[in-house]
């Protein structure tokens, strides 16, 4: 019989490992009801616990986060991450998220090296260039938000 009733129960079981991993890898995690929200530099994610099957499934948000307030992503649009198989642990997905972000970051860093001879290559280059520009803009916005939050903290102190 399944001893776990909620996402909170599962989260408590892996709490220390999750918190350490999140801190080491720059992830923000938060449990809201039966979902775990994860915010990384590249994307936002939702991990859903399916009690009847005692497993987790992963959802992904396509846009680069511009705000570090994880509560704002609760109602964001997500899609099912097909290539991430269902998992019995949260840590499995946190590792998947980190690897996914590393891959995406490497892709964004090599845009200028992409071939641009054929129409397909030119279209792929244009798409990746636009993604890189959105990523760079999001990083700047994250920095601005972090600076303004620091200033607000100093004023209120």
Share of helix among residues? 40-55%
Order of helices and strands: HEEEEEHH
**Over the alpha carbons, how many angstroms does the gyration radius reach?**
18 Å
Give the amount of beta strand, in percent.
15-25%
Termini separation: 51 Å
Say what oligomer this is: single chain
What is the averaged pLDDT score? 81
Largest sheet: 5 strands, antiparallel
Give the strand line-up of the largest sheet: 1-2-3-4-5
Q: Classify the secondary structure makeup into a structural class.
A: alpha+beta
- Name the poorly predicted regions: none
Count the strands?
5
| Envelope shape | globular
Total helical segments: 3
Write the layout of secondary structure elements.
Blueprint: H1 7-25, E1 28-32, E2 35-39, E3 44-50, E4 55-61, E5 79-80, H2 90-109, H3 119-156
Antiparallel strand pairs: 1-2, 2-3, 3-4, 4-5
